[in-house]
């Protein structure tokens, strides 16, 4: 296996509109990176796109340029006149059960309901809002169309003091948000924070289940909460698929950072090589790890 750092050649990046074309275009990035493996008919690589922030080191990057980290079975081939500058090294991490590591990953978290895949974030929001609506006897006023905005408006217009008390209780019981409760004023703000708390719980549960399947467990802090943070929830449209199917097509992604402990070294190795979750062809699933220095 190989771990590679790939960037657009500085002269091309500075003198062309390529960066604007690639911005947000996960399908285009996927196709261009595949050109680094000209003899492969099937994708055998993972990648993650990041934005350069530093301009120091032996290979300085242009601030704001896209960088691609790639894990692949075969070494990327940098052909003459290539769009990319590639730096590769063999990737054979030393792993053992009990080893603790810091990790970063971008994933496409989904949950299955009645045989269909649903975005974990949107599913958690809708399930939570529907539960609140039912608990306050407002389900009779629900429209046939499932719409988060309508659900929230129904609660804010009719929930009153009872809803505010329930939301306050939910936030007070969540140690991640209890300290902020005194700074949150108004029913609308409490509802937004309660939704965020429920999303955090759903994403943490998703990652815990991935660990059970992939050979790791999340480490916990002194308060018993998993050492895990999520950020940068985003929707990525796939225009090419939309054009073919005639309907909206795409996927969501979430960035995770945290700390883990390996429970099954072989399963974890395979996860490093084959990725975590879905949408791996479009920049999701690559687990980037490093050892924790104090363990």
TrEMBL record:
It comes from the Bacteria. Pfam families: CRISPR_assoc. Coiled coil: none annotated. NCBIfam families: casE_Cse3. This is Type I-E CRISPR-associated protein Cas6/Cse3/CasE. It comes from Methylomonas fluvii. The gene is cas6e.
């Amino acid at each position: 296996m190989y771990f590679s750092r790939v960037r657009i050649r500085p002269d091309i990046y500075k003198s062309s509109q390529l960066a604007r074309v690639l911005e947000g275009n996960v399908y285009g990035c996927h196709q261009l990176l595949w050109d680094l493996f000209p003899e492969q008919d099937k994708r055998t690589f993972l990648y993650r796109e990041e934005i350069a922030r530093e301009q120091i080191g032996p290979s300085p990057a242009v601030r704001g340029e896209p960088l691609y980290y790639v894990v692949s079975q075969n070494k990327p081939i940098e052909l003459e006149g290539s769009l990319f500058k590639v730096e590769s090294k063999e990737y054979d991490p030393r792993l053992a059960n009990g080893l603790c590591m810091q990790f970063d990953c971008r994933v496409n978290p989904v949950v299955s309901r009645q045989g269909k895949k649903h975005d974990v974030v949107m599913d958690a929001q809708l399930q939570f809002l529907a539960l609140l609506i039912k608990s306050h006897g407002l389900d009779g006023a629900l429209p046939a169309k499932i719409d988060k905005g309508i659900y929230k408006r129904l609660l804010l217009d009719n929930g009153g003091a009872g809803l505010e008390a329930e939301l306050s209780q939910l936030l007070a019981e969540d140690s991640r948000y209890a300290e902020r409760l005194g700074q949150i004023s108004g029913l609308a703000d409490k509802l937004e924070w309660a939704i965020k708390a429920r999303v955090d719980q759903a994403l943490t549960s998703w990652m815990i289940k991935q660990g059970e399947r992939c050979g790791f467990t999340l480490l916990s802090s002194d308060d018993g909460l998993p050492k895990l943070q999520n950020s940068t929830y985003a929707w990525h449209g796939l225009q090419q698929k939309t054009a073919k199917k005639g309907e909206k097509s795409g996927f969501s992604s979430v960035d995770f950072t945290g700390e883990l402990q390996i429970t099954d070294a072989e399963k974890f190795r395979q996860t490093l090589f084959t990725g975590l979750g879905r949408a791996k062809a479009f920049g999701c699933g690559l687990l980037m790890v490093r050892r924790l220095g104090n363990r």
